[in-house]
Amino acid sequence: MKTILKFIPLDHWILIIVKGKDSKKFLQHQLTININHLTDQKNFLYSCHCNSKGRLLTNMQIFKYKHNHYGYIIRKNIAKIYLNSIKKYIFLYDIQILCSTKSLVGIYADNNTTRNFLLKVLQNSNAFIHKTSLFIDKENIVLKIRTISHNKYFTIIIVNNINNISSYIKYHKISLAYNYDIKLFCQMGYPIIDKHNFAKFIPQEINMYKFHAIDLHKGCYIGQEIINKIYMANHNYNNNKLFSIKIKIENIIPMINDRLIITSQHKLTNKHHIINGYILAIYYSTYNRYCLIQIMAKMTIMHNVNIKILREHKSYALYIQK
């Protein structure tokens, strides 16, 4: 196996299963997308699940894998609080919602390399022959996610038994790219919703409209009134922006709970602005001594950006890499 393949453990993600005769109706009344657009075993969609105030409980990749059975992927550390938040709606429907015991792993490689890998470990490579984003073979589920790199995919594989994959990885001495999924999602602009930012943001604030995860023309769902009102008033919702910056690791290592002070200069007026920032996710590359941080901040069209971490009444400058 060529070294261009990256094998990514996805132990920090979990598959949520919704099943039962009312599963479609439940999801249609809860999520920000139109569930009718999900094609059986052919595609997945990005979506959001919000509370009544329009605040994001989780974002997801959701798919239908058989009749009255849906699955979606969320962060594992919010699964418990997420399910507790929505249980008040469940008793109205004939459904079951549970955390799957299936294993999730990721592959990052070009089309041919990924196809060969799937042929070896799943004995089936049809996922990369058909022009679909979802492929299901028996109990195996494959999601094909486009990245910013030309002809490279982030492939999520969901299996009952991971032994075949683990044996193949070990035999071919393929190194594990821990948390590389965070890097890919940061590059894509896909927000990471963890326990530290649970129910804090409106979907428009954190780029979910760029993933076609908000359908403004479907029927009622939880949080719709707030989300549509914000869309009609201001597409960018209070000018908040989600972006990623590559930081050189020197005198301090950024952490999720750090407060950021961002100083930037407006391109048109040349005025300097001081802005508070919020870190959603961090990808650390200790070998190359850099980290990629996903930031939420109130930004306009600016340049000459400087970022400092405020920690224990002291500030530390971060060195931005181009």
SSE blueprint and pairings:
Blueprint: E1 6-9, E2 13-19, H1 23-30, E3 45-50, E4 56-66, E5 69-75, H2 79-90, E6 96-99, E7 103-110, H3 111-121, E8 134-137, E9 140-146, E10 152-159, H4 163-171, H5 180-188, H6 224-233, E11 240-248, E12 259-266, E13 272-285, E14 290-298, E15 302-311, E16 314-320
Antiparallel strand pairs: 1-7, 2-5, 2-6, 3-4, 4-5, 7-10, 8-9, 9-10, 11-14, 11-16, 12-13, 12-15, 13-14, 15-16
Describe the structure.
There is one protein chain. It contains 6 helices and 16 strands. It has 322 residues and is α+β, with helices and mostly antiparallel strands. It has 2 domains: 1-237, Gyrase A, domain 2 (2-Layer Sandwich), CATH 3.30.1360.120; 239-322, Elongation Factor Tu (Ef-tu), domain 3 (Beta Barrel), CATH 2.40.30. The strands form 3 sheets. A 6-stranded antiparallel beta barrel has the order 11-14-13-12-15-16. A 5-stranded antiparallel β-sheet has the order 1-7-10-9-8. The longest helix is centred in the first third of the chain and has 12 residues, at 79-90. The model has no long low-confidence stretch (mean pLDDT 88).
